[in-house]
Each structure stands twice: as C-alpha cells, then as structure tokens.
Design goal:
This protein is of the alpha+beta class and about 475 residues long. The chain has 15 helices and 12 strands. The strands form 3 sheets. It has a 5-stranded antiparallel sheet with strand order 8-7-6-5-9.
Length: about 475
C-alpha cells in the first residue's frame, strides 16, 4: 500500500515539473527544431526572449495571452489560439510568411509551453500590389529630406571651388607669363592648377554629403563613366594635344601662307581645337589641329625666297642666244627678282613650230606677291622680245586644199613698186608694275585686313604668335 502511494506521488511530481515534462516529450524538441530551421532558411524575425505570465500558468491563461498578442499585432485575420496540456494550436490567416513564422516562434517562447502546432495559413499576394512601391517612395522622401541640408552645403562647396579654381588658373597664367614664353603652355599650366583645385573641391563636397565611396571613385578615375567620357572626348583630347605639340614645334606662324590637305591660305589663328586659314579668295577654313599636325604642311613663307618659272616659245629662225640674253636683261633689271640665286633661261624642248625656253627666277615672297611678280616679268619679257623682232609663233597648223590652189602669173613689167615700209618706232619703256597688277607687294596684309571683322576668330586666343 505504501509502495503504491509512493509510486503515484513520484509519477505526479515527474509530470508536474516543467523541465522534466519537456525532456520527456520529444514532440516539443522536434517542433522547436522545425521552427529554428525555418528561421534559418527565411529572413530572421525579431522575437521576444521571453513572454511573461503568472508564475503558475494554466492552459487558459496561456491561450488568452497569446490570443491578445496575435490580435494586437494586426498581422492576422481571424486568429485563434487553443492550448491543450501545454501544447499550443495556432489557426488563422497571416499577411505574409514571415509573420506566420513569428507567431510560432513567439508561442514557443511563452512560459510553460511544451509544443506549438502552427496551422496559420498565408494569404496569397494580390496580382497588382503597389504598396511596396509606395513605401519605397515614402522611404526615399524621408531619406532625401534628411540628406537635403548636406546636399545644399555640398553645392555651396562646389560653387566656391569653381570660382577658386578659376582665380587660381588666372593667377598661374599671370605668374608664368615672364617665365614661360609659350602662350599655350601657360594656358595648360593654368588649366592644370584649376582642374586640380576643382577636383579637390568636388571631393570635399562628396565627403560632406556622405558619398564617400563616390568621392574615392572620382579621385581614382575608375568606372564606366570615365571610360565613356574618354571615348566621347577622344577627338577633343587629340586636338588639344596636337595644339600643344604645334605650339612647341612651331611648323608655321600667324600670317604664313601654308597648304594643308589641299587647303591653302594665310594662318589667321590657332586655338586649342583648330587652325583657322584665310584663303587667297577671302574665305575662311577651320581645320582640326590633329589633321594639321598629322598632315603634310607646305609652308610657302617659311623661307623668304621662292622660285617662279614660265615658258616662252620662239621661232626656229630666231637666235636662241639673243632671246636668252634679252630675257636675262629683263630679269636682271626687275626690282623684285633677286640675283642670288641667279635667274636662268634654259632650252626646254623643241616644239612643232617653236623652240621652247623655260625661264626660272627667284624673288622675296615676304615682300612681293608671286601673282603680281609673275605677271610683271612675263609682260616685260614679251615686250622686249617683240621689240627685238624675235617671233613667238603659234603651234603649226596643216591646211588641206582638196581641189588645189589656183596660181595666177603676174607680168613683172606691170608689177607695182611698193614703197619701203617705214622702220618701226622704238617702243615705250615698260613700267615695272601696271595699274592692273596693282603693285608687287604681297597680298598678305590685304587678305588679313579683309577678314578683320570676323567675330568667330577675334574672340579666340591665338596660341601661336
């Protein structure tokens, strides 16, 4: 009898102890393991470490407490909690899977709960749900409002750094004016100092606004933006580098008559982008510096002396030596023709009706125009050859008479005597320059003066003097 009473009391104590009850029921450990695995697979949810109720809990008290918690959250539709001997049964509909797992984990944390059976279903999301987008917009507005003062300060820093960089660039050009003769190099030095200061200002502005990673990227020069800008401004960078090289090498100067890629004209100005030429017709040609630097440049005024030539044909019966002497006399007396190197008159070829002479002479192209000098020399040579009875026949032509040429015989006794032809009067000396030629001076000043009102050129800084 005593033994039976002892066994009954021991058994009741064993099942009434919460710790021993949980150890003795493997279902509780299995439910806990399932909830922990679900928490590891899905997003971690915040659960209270312990839900306190009265020290001695009954199923009814646990049920009421969990029912109140689930209704207070508002995450569940028609929630229902049932507790039977420490086992909690959860029913209802949760708005998402995370809250479903939260309900099971919260019930398991409750004191005196040995197991949880989670029967809560999850509602299917609507086909057209804009709530996440609205919440994202609200969050973006809140973040923008919070960072707006920092952006204002960053904008002020960028503006101040821009004006500071511009002032530093002008100061650098002014201080290097007496130290660096090349104007383009002074401009490059000023731009370099200004760009460095501006980049530092932008870096400070990005740090102030909280964009530290973007600031580091900006200073590092990495990213797709830098690559895209490199491709976009490749031609501009190439022209800028070509302008620096031309400023150092000086293949020509302002006012020189050059020819590049078929374009011929006087150099008007050279900027960081292109070279402006004024043609002999008064037109303007703008060529990229990269084209000018890489192309074949013919500088007609690089050396003061330039050679002209022309051909003249005399008759077979005329004296070649006499014709050469007459032409050399004209060249020797012409004020625009130089004697060193000396002019030459050579026999070039024999034509069908003429002996062709080639006349070559030098003149100072910095002072005289090649068009005007050539016109003056040819005019005087023609006149002197005519006065010396040296013929300049046209090319021979063959005349064909199909029916023959009728010939009439004249009686010598009836031949009239023609009076002697009067001797030709000496010709009037030829002037060096006529009104048609307008003097022998070069057209450079006239062409440059004709384009002085070109506003597209006057406002640009000339990089080559």
């Amino acid at each position: 009898m005593v033994r039976n009473v002892f066994l009954i009391v021991f058994t009741a104590c064993l099942f009434s102890c919460p710790g021993m009850a949980q150890v003795g029921i493997p279902a509780a450990d299995e439910a806990t393991s399932e909830i922990a695995a679900a928490d590891e697979d899905d997003e971690q949810v915040d659960v209270a470490a312990d839900v306190q109720v009265a020290p001695v809990n009954s199923d009814e008290r646990i049920q009421n407490r969990l029912q109140e918690i689930m209704e207070a959250t508002g995450w569940f539709l028609a929630p229902r909690v049932t507790v039977d001997r420490g086992v909690v049964f959860l029913e209802g509909i949760a708005d998402d899977e995370k809250h479903q797992q939260w309900a099971g984990a919260t019930a398991m944390k409750t004191s005196d709960v040995v197991a949880v059976v989670n029967r809560i279903d999850v509602t299917d999301p609507p086909f057209w749900n804009v709530t996440p987008a609205i919440e994202s917009l609200k969050q973006l507005v809140r973040e923008t409002t919070a960072v707006l003062p920092l952006l204002v300060v960053a904008a002020i820093v960028i503006v101040l750094s821009y004006f500071l960089a511009a002032a530093a660039a002008r100061l650098t050009r002014w201080t290097t004016e007496n130290r660096i003769e090349n104007k383009l190099l002074r401009q490059v030095a000023g731009n370099f100092v200004g760009v460095i200061l501006f980049i530092i200002g932008v870096y400070i502005a990005l740090r102030v606004s909280g964009l530290t990673r973007l600031a580091v990227t900006l200073l590092g020069g990495t990213g797709l933006v830098g690559l895209a800008l490199g491709f976009a401004f490749r031609d501009i960078a190439e022209n800028y580098l070509a302008s620096i090289l031309m400023s150092l090498n000086r293949p020509f100067r302002v006012g020189d008559l050059i020819e590049v890629e078929g374009a011929k004209g006087f150099v008007r100005t050279v900027t960081t982008r292109g070279t402006v030429l004024n043609t002999l017709e008064g037109n303007q040609i703008q060529m990229p510096n990269s084209t000018v630097y890489k192309g074949k440049i013919v500088n007609y005024t690089a050396t003061p002396l330039s050679r002209l030539d022309f051909a003249v044909g005399i008759g077979f019966d005329d004296s070649i030596i006499e014709a050469q002497q007459i032409i050399m006399t004209v060249l020797g007396e012409h004020p625009a023709v130089v004697t060193d190197p000396p002019p030459i008159v050579i026999v070039d070829s024999l034509g069908s009706a003429t002996v062709n002479l080639n006349v070559l002479y030098w003149f100072d192209q910095t002072k005289h125009s090649p068009l005007k000098v050539g016109s003056s020399v040819i005019r005087q040579v023609k006149q002197q050859l005519t006065d010396a009875k040296i013929t300049m026949p046209d090319e021979a032509r063959e005349l064909v008479f199909p029916k023959g040429v009728p010939v009439q015989m004249i009686d010598p006794s009836h031949q009239s005597v023609t009076p002697d032809e009067p001797s030709p009067e000496p010709s009037t000396p030829q002037p060096t320059s006529t009104n048609g030629e307008g003097g022998l001076k070069t057209e450079q000043s006239e062409i440059m003066r004709a384009t002085d009102n070109d506003e597209t050129v006057n406002d640009k800084a000339n990089l080559i003097a």
